[in-house]
Every structure is written in C-alpha cells, then in structure tokens.
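[agent] plan:
  1. take the single chain provided in the ticket
  2. run structure prediction with default settings
  3. attach structure tokens to the ticket
  4. add a short note for the reviewer (M.T.)
[agent] executing step 1
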Amino acid sequence: MRGKTVRSLVQFFKSDLGIRFIAEGAVRSSAFIITPLLSWSLGASVFGGYLQIMSLSFAFVPLVSAGLGFTVIRQLAGQRNDTKAPQLLAISIGIISTLCVLLATVLGLLADNTVSYFALSMFEDSSWLVWTIPVLAWIFATEALVGEYLRAQIKARASLYVQIASFGLHMAGLGGVLWLYELSLETALLSIAISKLVIIGFVLCPVFLRLQGNDKQRSTPLSLKTVLGGLPFMLAGLAEWAANLGDRLIVGRFLGAEAVAHYGAGIMMLSVIAALGAPVWWMLFPTVAKHIKTQNLKACQDAIKHYTMLFAELAFPVLALVVLTANPAISLLLNSPAENMTVVVLIAGCAIITSQITTGWEYYLVTISSGKRLMTATVTCSLVGFAVAWHFAPEWGLIGVTFGMLSGKLGLGLFYAISANRNGFGGAVWRTKHLALLCVVNAISVSITYAGVHYLSYSTSTIGQIVIPALIFLSLYGTGRYLLKLAGRHSSI
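[agent] step 2 finished; step 3 output follows
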C-alpha cells in the first residue's frame, strides 16, 4: 500500500498539474526566503523602498503590454506550428518596447516629482530609481507575454519549467551577490532583472531564429483592430494591480517606506491562505463546468459547497495563527520591531478570505455567462477599494488601507452573490451551520489564547512569542473540534 502511494505521488508530480503545484509553491514560498534575506541585509526602510519600486513597475505593466497577452497571443491558441507565431511575438515585443520608451521619457521629465511623491527621496541620488521602473516594467511585461506565448502553443509544461527556472536563477543571483559582494538596493534590483532577462533570452532565441529562417513570409499578421481590442484588458490589468499591489503604493505614499515593509510582510504571511485555496479552486472549476454542461444544478451547488467548506476548514485556523503571531513574526522577518499589526492583519485576512470564499459564485457565473459583467464588476470594485484606501490612509494609517481593501472585496463578493442567485443558483456557497461552528470554535480559541498570553505577560524570545501562542491555539482549536465531533453537532469534510 505504501509503495502504491509513493508511486501515485511520483506520477502526480510528473503530471502537468503536479508541476503546476510545484511552480506555484516555488513562487509563493520564495517570498518567505527573499523577504528576510532582503530586509535583514537592506534594513526595513530600504526594503520598503524596494517593494515600492516593484509595485510601481507592476503598475505600468498593463499599460505597456496594452492587453497583447490576451488578444494577440490568443490568436495562436492550440496552433503548435503556426508560422505567424514568431512574427506575432516579435511585433508584440516591439510594441511593448516602444511604449516603455515613451514611459521612460515621461518619467524622466517628471523624475523629481515622482521621487518625492512616492517617498523615494530617502535614497541618495534617487533619480536613477525612476529610470529603473520602465526597465522593470518592460521585463515583467515581456515575461508575461512569453508565458502567454508558451501556453498558446500548448507548451504548458515548458511554461511551468520557465517559471521554476526564473525563481531558481533569482535565488542563485541573490546568493551570489551575498557571497561575492554586499547586498544593496541596486544589486537586489539588478539580480531580479538579470535572472528574468536570462530566462526571456533563453525562450526567445529559438523563436527569433525561427523567424529569421522564415524569410518567405514577411507579412505583418497584426492589425490595428487587434491592438485596439486589447485596450479593455489594459483596464482590467490596472484594476487587478489596484486590487493586489496598489495598497503597497498607497502605504508608501502616505506612511513611508518602512511602513511598506511591515505591511508587505503581513500580506506575505496571509498569502498562505490564497496558496491553500489555489488547489481547491483548481479542482472546483472543471467540476462546476461539467455539472452546468449536464444541467445538474443540484450537483453543482453541492460541489461548490463541498469545496468552499474544504477551503474554510484550512483557511480559518491559518488566519487565526497569523493574527496571533503577527507582531513577532513580522519583527523576525524584517529584523525590525513591529507593533500594532494585529488589527491590520485581521482586516486584510478577512478581505482575502472574502475573496476566496466567494469563488464558487464567481465560477458559477463565469460558466453560465459571457463574463463581460464580471469584468466590469471586478474593475469597478477594485478601483473603488483603491479609492477608499487612498482616502482613509492619511488619517487611519494601515487600518485605513486594509479597510479599503476589504470594502472592494466585500463589494465584489456581494455582486457575485446577487448575480448568481438571480441566475438560478439559489442560496449560499457554504453550509451555514458548519461555517458558523467553525467561526465560533476559531473565535473562542483565539480569544482564550490572546487573553492567556497577555495575562501571563511572558518574556521570551521572538521565536517563543510565535511558537507559544501557536501551540496554545492549536491545542484549544483541536480540542474544540474534537468535542463538536463527539457531540454529533459537526462533521468533518
């Protein structure tokens, strides 16, 4: 039996799905390595500046990519040997490069204002940072385009290998810098840039060699209509940035680079929740599509409730652990004292769980509709959340930023709920009694742990301040779940 299990695991990790999990795990776990590596070497303030530069660079990616990843490359979907593919990719990269040059020109003219507006003037001779942003935007946009190209050519495995290799090279580059030189803001940015350029070059070389060997076909397979068709996706990309990275820019604008570091570390810890949800939703979507295709609404609802509760079982105690250990864990990650992060992490965690737990409604709507209303709602709610965070950040600080984040997610979740129920879903995506019991057990366990730790007023190491509350909570939570099971009031999924 054990040998069979091992063989099954080996076969799984050899599959495209298994490789995808490895790639996602590598990307998500890299933050837990890179964050302490950079923050301990650079200091919390400089590391916060690093996060701001990365956020600004990603903010311009939707603009310079012009939606080409969704429109141009999609023309190649399923066509392994389309002779137009290299041309399409080359022209798309040319458009991105042109837009990045224009971006660099604009930022160069506004260099002083950009540096001061986004609180980057703390760095000596900080004007060079402005020129770094369009370069990184080009790298990130081209990397995304290359990924779309590989997927469109039915090279999903190659795309995942590229993702893993990019992570490996980045880590190797940082390690090499630490070994040979001194890690600084410049070398940290240079490391990520070089690692991604190497990967991009490795993928593009055979593509462009194929283009050179295709002298007989020099027609331009890219129309103005195709380019303009990507503009709606540009807006969607900006909305996605506002929802996922815009909060860091707001923190830097109003609260400074060090606050960005503390906030970014808290969000990174909460990313574990999204990582737990990824495989669950990966399994849910094809199940929903299958049941909708066979018009079996009852089976569809049951599947959505099952997977949603599975996610809740995993996510709720993780959120509780992150909230209880937020201050010492962030202090350890950044090597910088962190205070008053508990409420910030709690609100941000509620926003992430809201986004995740309403995924069932989202998938249902995606399956039965064209998706245009979903895109409109996503863009609207993301931008509203960004605006709310921008408004409250000066007065409420990090709590104001997370409140804006939560408002956007709640608005989108409410839209999903109303739209799904108007289109035949009927009811919630969770088992109400089950979810209520989970919330009660978590709330009681967190309250007792928090009160006990503060009542004892223990003095221990930073690691002890993480481990002791975690052990107390897990003991209480496990006991509570066991008693509920014995009482027959709650069944596990």
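[agent] step 4 note for reviewer: The two ends are 24 Å apart (CA to CA).
[agent] ticket updated
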